[in-house]
Design brief:
Radius of gyration: 20 Å
Largest sheet: 7 strands, antiparallel
Order of helices and strands: HEEHHEHHHEEHEEEEEEEEHHE
Structural class: alpha+beta
Shape: globular
Strand order of the largest sheet: 1-2-6-7-10-13-14
Helix content: 25-40%
Strand content: 15-25%
Bound molecules: adenosine-5'-diphosphate, magnesium ion
Distance between the termini: 23 Å
């Protein structure tokens, strides 16, 4: 596998334009492509597909993501996640298939990262409010920390059930659901006969087939410089070499208080936003679900442990 990397800071658009000019203009863009954007999973989701049934393929993918959202939504009281969060201790809760699959990978990454990634971080994520710029007081953090610990979950893969050892344990799949949905969207586009597809669910990017907008058919993804204006890229990755390119960043949801940055990726050990000098982690591998969990885990673990963790799963990593 070969990655095409621009080592220097580049402006992707001008470079693409220059390449197109050199090659005598962009290749023909077929009119059988279809692109749609929706706000789902608390983020902007764009799906593009090409082929005869592109539109129905994209719509089917969005329908399925909508269904998955209903199961994993922390704030929807009828979701599987809410049913589990409200459940009593030592009671097996039957999961829908999607939630069970997400949890399996979440727990693998929780173990491997020694809790840097932890789906039971919910008690903490619940008390932070990044929209209202609310910093929980130390007592709130201390109380929430008592209810964090993935060791308190027992997933029975055969039965498809999840059990918690303490009543107040809650789960939050926000660090994994977008990646999972991106994987599912690819499958659906392919099932509908799409020739190619590009899926971007809030920075969880998956592509397959040949990009009709480039002569070489590649899908070039620029990785944003943290806190930049959105046009400055530190590196460009060819997605087709991996399948998925997933980035977690402290600049996605944050506020400043007395010059200190507070962002939405929480260190489950301290209860406060991860603070180790890492602003952005990009994971590149086949599964967007795994990449989503790992990008969050590595952002919490920091550079050294993050690299080891990615390596353990055979994933490539880019840290800023
Ligand atoms: P983004 O949502 O910006 O793509 P992530 O994939 O890293 O970023 O997911 C962040 C979300 O994951 C948070 O909004 C929260 O729901 C959840 N989360 C925060 N900290 C952790 C953690 N340490 N382990 C697991 N999930 C987390
Ligand atoms: Mg993530």
């Amino acid at each position: 596998m070969e990655i095409i990397i621009e080592e220097k800071k580049v402006r992707v658009l001008p470079i693409i334009l220059i390449i197109c000019l050199l090659l005598g203009g962009c290749s023909f863009i077929p009119d059988n492509s279809y692109t749609e954007t929706q706000f789902l999973l608390d983020t902007v989701c764009t799906i593009e597909a090409g082929g005869e049934n592109a539109e129905s393929a994209v719509k089917a993918a969005f329908d399925e993501i909508g269904k998955i959202q209903k199961q994993v939504d922390f704030y929807d009281e009828n979701s599987t996640v809410s049913l589990f969060n409200k459940a009593e201790a030592n009671t097996e809760i039957t999961l829908d298939n999607h939630t069970a699959l997400i949890l399996k990978t979440c727990l693998e990454v929780s173990h491997a990262s020694q809790g840097a990634f932890d789906v039971t971080v919910a008690s903490l994520t619940e008390i932070w409010d990044f929209k209202e710029k609310y910093i929980p007081n130390p007592k709130e953090i201390e109380d929430a920390l008592k209810n964090v610990g993935y060791e308190n979950l027992v997933l029975d893969e055969t039965k498809g059930t999840l059990l918690k050892k303490h009543k107040d344990i809650k789960i939050d799949l926000g660090g994994a659901a977008k990646g999972y949905c991106a994987d599912i969207a690819v499958n659906i586009l392919k099932e509908h006969g799409a020739e190619y597809g590009l899926i971007n669910l809030g920075g969880n990017i998956v592509a397959f087939g040949k990009n009709p907008k480039r002569k070489d058919g590649s899908w070039q993804i620029g990785i944003k410089k943290p806190f930049s204006d959105g046009e400055t890229y530190e590196k460009t990755v060819s997605v087709e070499n991996y399948g998925a390119v997933v980035t977690s960043g402290t600049y996605e949801r944050y506020f400043y208080d007395k010059d200190k940055l507070y962002h939405h990726i929480i260190d489950p050990k301290t209860g406060y936003p991860a603070d180790n000098g890492t602003s952005s982690v990009t994971i590149m591998n086949e599964s967007a679900l795994l990449a989503d969990c790992l990008s969050t885990a590595c952002l919490v673990s920091g550079e050294e442990k993050g690299r080891e963790l990615a390596n353990e799963f055979g994933a490539d990593i880019y840290i800023q």
